Amino acid sequence: MEIVILAVVIAVVVIGALGGLVVGSRRKKQLPEPPPAAPDITAPPAEPHVGDEAETPRDETRRTIEEVDLPDGGTATVEEPPVVEELEIPQIEVPEPTAGRLVRLRARLSRSQNALGKGLLTLLSREHLDEDTWEEIEDTLLTADVGVQPTQELVERLRERVKVLGTRTPEELRTLLREELITLVGPDMDREVKTEPATSKPGIVMVVGVNGTGKTTTTGKLARVLVADGRSVVLGAADTFRAAAADQLQTWGERVGAHTVRGPEGGDPASVAFDAVKEGKEMGSDVVLIDTAGRLHTKTGLMDELGKVKRVVEKHAPLDEVLLVLDATTGQNGLIQARVFAEVVNITGIVLTKLDGTAKGGIVVAVQRELGVPVKLIGLGEGADDLAPFEPAAFVDALIGE
């Protein structure tokens, strides 16, 4: 009996152990897989502080200089410093000599020839010179801006000489007309530009005129005329009201080596003129040319200021020349301008510009009669050396042609 009970107990124990093994294996299959272990994170090394020792260098693969590829076959490229361009020094020009310059520029008066000289020769060559022909001659002279009184004087002298001459060949007519025109222009007037003072250097020349007559350009060209005659020149840029007028004049001066005195734009023109004369004296220059601001002859205040410039300059020395620049194409309006300027400053000479092209040569006679002063220079083109001393005989020859 005890054996049976022991056998039953052993069987129960065995069955229980087997059951536990089965349940344990099932539980193991149902449990989820454990999460992967977190990677170890290494904190970055702390930045060294003042006094800390440097980190021990790590072992790295290093290359020698022979193993490094260099450009251009192993030769290092060295960049050259940029080339600094030198400032261009203006080239000093040598102006044309003034002697005989008007003769060389005779062709510039070709259109004026047709208007005056050739027209008169054609009329005088008619077989019968009746009253209608003489009226046509008068109209030709008036159209050429000779002026009423000079025209009447010339026609009267031509009438007398043609009547005495009788038979008129073309050559005789040309000689007759040439002589009378030279007389009308005034061969005995002193046309020298006064640049040599009686006492001490420099000679002082002031250039005046209205806007648009070519006054600043004429001042620059006159500097070339004087340099061509061997004179040293200082330019005074007293036209402080027109933008870039001082730059324009300085450019003219640099081309012939003339020093330019200038002031701030919109500054006092009298002050610039004063400084120009002062520096001209200090430099021992022969001539000082003062370019004044273009004035409207109808503006009283501006004309009074021109008188102020003249008075300030004369604190140094008296003016040797006051040249009035007139546009030859303005005709009778130019005479009105001339009259007003003569009242403000003492005009001593006239410069006629733009006498080429469609200009009429008779304005030379009219303006001289109006002011009682000679035409001293004439402008015959846009070229730098197209300003010429006025020579009556050469001028008349250009008007009537060969």
From TrEMBL:
PANTHER family: SIGNAL RECOGNITION PARTICLE RECEPTOR SUBUNIT ALPHA (PTHR43134:SF1). Keywords: Cell membrane, Cytoplasm, GTP-binding, Hydrolase, Membrane, Nucleotide-binding, Receptor. Residues 374-387 form the SRP54-type proteins GTP-binding domain. PROSITE patterns: SRP54. Transmembrane segments: none annotated. HAMAP family: FtsY (MF_00920). GTP binds at residues 209-216, 291-295, 353-356. It is found in: Cell membrane; Cytoplasm. The gene is ftsY. It comes from Streptomyces violaceorubidus. Involved in targeting and insertion of nascent membrane proteins into the cytoplasmic membrane. Acts as a receptor for the complex formed by the signal recognition particle (SRP) and the ribosome-nascent chain (RNC). Belongs to the GTP-binding SRP family. FtsY subfamily. This is Signal recognition particle receptor FtsY. The keyword Cell membrane applies. NCBIfam families: ftsY. InterPro entries: AAA+_ATPase, P-loop_NTPase, Signal_recog_particl_SRP54_hlx, SR_rcpt_FtsY, SRP/SRP_N, SRP54_GTPase_dom, SRP54_N_sf. Its EC number is 3.6.5.4. It comes from the Bacteria. Residues 49-65 have a biased composition (Basic and acidic residues). Residues 26-65 are annotated as: Disordered. It catalyses: GTP + H2O = GDP + phosphate + H(+). Part of the signal recognition particle protein translocation system, which is composed of SRP and FtsY. The keyword Cytoplasm applies. It is a peripheral membrane protein.
